[in-house]
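Pinned message: reference record for Signal peptidase complex subunit 3
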Amino acid sequence: MGVVERHTTRGCPNLEPVEASGSAFPAGLNSLLTYGSTVLLTVCILTSATDFLVHRSDPKVSVKPAKIEAVSRGPEGDWAWMSVDLNADLRSVFSWNTKQLFVSVMVSFATPKNHVNEAVIWTEIITDKSKAHIKHSSLAPQWAYTLSAQDHALRVTPFNITVSWDVMPIVGALYMQHRSFSGFQFPAEYFKPPRPGRLKQQKPPGKIPGAVM
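Predicted structure (C-alpha cells):
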C-alpha cells in the first residue's frame, strides 16, 4: 500500500497576492528630486569653494578729501560738506563667478557725544569687469545731506574715509572687503561756501538713502 503524506499549514503565514500600489511613482519621483537637489547643492558648494580658494584678487584703492567746502555751526550741532578724490581699481576682484560689485564710500569720525558717526556719501553698482576701475576727481556726495555732529565739536576732528565693495557671486555667499584711510581732519575754523545753497551734489544711481549714525 502507498503511504499517504499529510501536509499541515498550521503556523504558516497566509500568503496572498500583493497588488501594485499607486504610490510607487510619487515615491520614485521624490527620490529622484532629492538626489538631483543633493547633487546640485554639492556642485554649487564645490564651485563656490574652488573660486574662493583659487581666485586671488589684488585691488588698488586710494581716496582722500578733494575739498572741504563748508564747516558750519548749526543750532543743534556742527555740519560739514566735502568732496573726495577716488581711484579704485577693482578689476582683479572679478572672477568667472562674480555677478556684480556694490561699491561705497563712507566717512566716519568720533565726537564727545557720539563715539561713532558714519555717513555713506557715494555708492555705485559695477556689473562689468571693464568698468571696475573707478576714477573720480572731486567726487561729491550723492544725497542732499551733510556730515553732521550732534554737538559743536567737528572742528579739528580727525576722520577716516573707507572704500568698501560687496562681492555678489553667481553661486555662493556674498562677502565684503574694504580699505580704510586715516590721517584727515576737519578745519579749525568755521566757514561756509561762497554761494550758500550751491554745494555740488552728484546724482544718485537709485533710491539708496544715506545714513548718519
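Pinned by admin. Summary line: The first strand starts at residue 60 and ends at 73.
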